[in-house]
Design goal:
The chain is α+β, with helices and mostly antiparallel strands. About 40% of the residues lie in helices and about 15% in strands. The strands form 3 sheets. The protein has a 5-stranded mixed sheet. A 4-stranded mixed sheet has the order 3-5-8-4. A two-stranded antiparallel sheet has the order 1-2. The protein is globular, with a radius of gyration of 28 Å.
């Protein structure tokens, strides 16, 4: 049962596991051999031993850390593996009322271990299992199938765009046509039959993208003797430099493509590459200078990039008003080019302001429905997405929900000395991933809660919904 659960959750990557680990039949055989060996050594020749005499701790450690856990390289996947192992490998599994699944369908039916001793008893139990199993059997929410279908649909569209051909006119992307005015007058076909349909459509799309992207007027942050000492100011300065350089490149490229599509400019090898990528909906490699989901198409990427530039404009305006306004600015964490650097900069800023060492400071978080007052140790973040759970404003705790994703409207993070931290009681540590691919871990946050099974249900926080 444990092996089946472990493998079946791979179908729901990155919700079931953060990545596709290579669990296989050799793991099952190794696990069975290990159990046999330890039981034989414990029994010392006896035919039966009491369940409480079985070396559960040793078996759990071998399963979670070596046999299956040896393939895992994500800390939260390891916590999930530990939970599964401890829940199944325990003395209570020998009780006839032990539940394998607490809720197998919407009717609330349960699935208990088979009550039998012989192989025929277990086969009979297996044949009575329902033909249709829901994700709840794996510890996942029942709407996990929707997440997988969305991912598959997105992947299918991306592959379809890459396979898109331009039929008869495709070779024109690579033709070195002379679009000078003199040549245009000599060739009456230019502007008519020579310009293929895909080029006209791309020209229209480029016009729309240029209307979405802000103009190239993002100023540089001005250094002073005082503000350059602030780690947070230096971080924002780097962000603005990256954004300004990338914005200039993209606007230049799009204007060049627009002129080529209007037959006003000759193609170069670089522009041919842009034409080939853009007409297929692919983001050009020269534009990808920060971490985004692999295979993201050009339209959502352009919209996302435009929002990032608008946030940089707000940062510049706040910097012009002074360091206090810059620190109190609410930041869309997913819209920064380096999220980990922002978290580090806030920690360094508090340590410098308070005179503490970095090792003393621990991160605390609270969620609110809107902006709240910030002190010298706190910072405001917006745009975080919570998958598989929701935050109750009344109690300030997290609880499991059937919703695929909920918004954390305003998140306040504070760097506090360990001895000054207020005890949360029961808490859960959740990963903060950059996006729904769950490949880039930004930070971990502790939340108060009264519930369990957060790891089983794949609960996590995302900085951006770009996919």
């Amino acid at each position: 049962w444990f092996h089946a659960i472990t493998q079946e959750r791979l179908r729901y990557t990155p919700l079931g596991w953060s990545k596709k680990y290579e669990f296989n039949e050799s793991d099952l055989k190794c696990a069975c051999d290990t159990i046999d060996r330890w039981l034989d050594d414990t029994a010392k020749g006896r035919d039966n031993i009491p369940p409480d005499k079985i070396p559960w701790d040793a078996l759990c450690t071998l399963m979670s850390q070596s046999i299956y856990g040896g393939r895992i390289d994500n800390n939260f996947d390891q916590l999930l593996m530990n939970d599964f192992v401890k829940r199944i490998f325990q003395p209570a599994t020998f009780e006839s009322d032990f539940l394998l699944v607490e809720k197998i369908d919407e009717s609330g039916n349960k699935l208990a271990v088979p009550d039998g001793l012989r192989r025929e008893d277990f086969l009979r139990w297996m044949h009575k299992l329902p033909d249709t199993q829901t994700p709840a059997w794996l510890g996942l929410p029942n709407n996990a199938d929707q997440v997988i279908l969305q991912t598959k649909a997105s992947t299918f569209v991306q592959k379809l765009l890459k396979m898109q051909t331009v039929t008869d006119d495709e070779d024109l992307v690579y033709q070195d046509l002379d679009f000078s005015p003199d040549s245009t007058r000599r060739k009456s076909v230019i502007g008519g039959a020579v310009r293929p349909q895909w080029m006209k459509a791309l020209g229209d799309s480029v016009g729309q993208w240029l209307a979405i992207i802000p103009p190239d007027d993002l100023p540089a942050l001005k250094r002073t003797v005082e503000n350059i000492k602030d780690p947070l100011y230096r971080f924002y300065e780097r962000e603005c430099t990256i954004g300004r350089n990338l914005l200039k490149t993209i606007l230049t490229d799009l204007n060049d493509v627009a002129q080529v599509c209007d037959l006003k400019k000759k193609q170069t090898n670089y522009i041919r590459g842009l034409l080939s990528d853009l007409q297929k909906g692919i983001v050009p490699k020269s534009w990808v200078r920060y971490n985004v989901p692999s295979g993201v198409t050009i339209n959502p990427w352009i919209i996302d990039f435009a929002e990032r530039i608008r946030q940089l404009q707000k940062i510049v305006e706040a910097a012009q008003m002074g360091q206090t306004a810059l620190k109190e600015l609410t930041v869309w964490l997913g819209g920064l080019f380096s999220q980990e650097a922002y978290v580090t900069a806030t920690r360094q800023s508090v340590a410098q302001c308070k005179g503490y060492s970095l090792e003393e400071l621990k991160l605390q978080v609270s969620v609110h429905s809107g902006p709240v007052e910030l002190d010298s140790s706190s910072f405001g973040i917006s745009g975080l997405k919570l998958m598989g759970a929701e935050h109750e404003n009344a109690s300030g705790k997290l609880k499991i929900t059937e919703d695929i994703m909920t918004d954390l409207m305003y998140t306040k993070i504070s760097w506090v000395r360990e001895q000054d931290i207020t005890a949360l009681g029961k808490k859960i540590t959740l990963p903060v991933y950059l996006n729904n691919t769950r490949t880039t871990l930004v930070e971990t946050l502790d939340f108060p809660t009264d519930e369990d099974q957060f790891y089983e249900r794949g609960v996590a926080i995302l900085c951006t919904s770009l996919s």
